[in-house]
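Amino Acid Chain and Its Fold in Token Form
===========================================
Structure side: the spatial fold of the chain, written down as a series of whole-number tokens.
Position: the record begins directly beneath this header, with no further notes in between.
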Amino acid sequence: MGQNVVDQYLFQIIVAVAAAFGGWVLNTISSSLKTLDADVRNIPQRYVQKEDFNKALAELKADLSNSTRDLKNDMQRGFDKIDASVTTLFERLNERGHGE
């Protein structure tokens, strides 16, 4: 009868350890699921949706195109003014050279 009591006592210890380990595993899984759920719910706040990205990219391309066109126009006007000034200078130099 003494051996049966020891066997039962060991069995109860093994069951208690297994139950504690099982509870720890379930608690860890539950915590991981809560974290995963929170992360999934925050995806729209952390990442840009494809439609929003495409819209912003199109706006940037339009702005860049407009800026490039404006820059080209400004540069052309500047070169035209430089060309006119250089032409005037050469005309004056030619007049002075022929006038002497």
The helical segments are 2-41, 43-46, 50-99. Residues 37 and 72 are 52 Å apart (CA to CA).
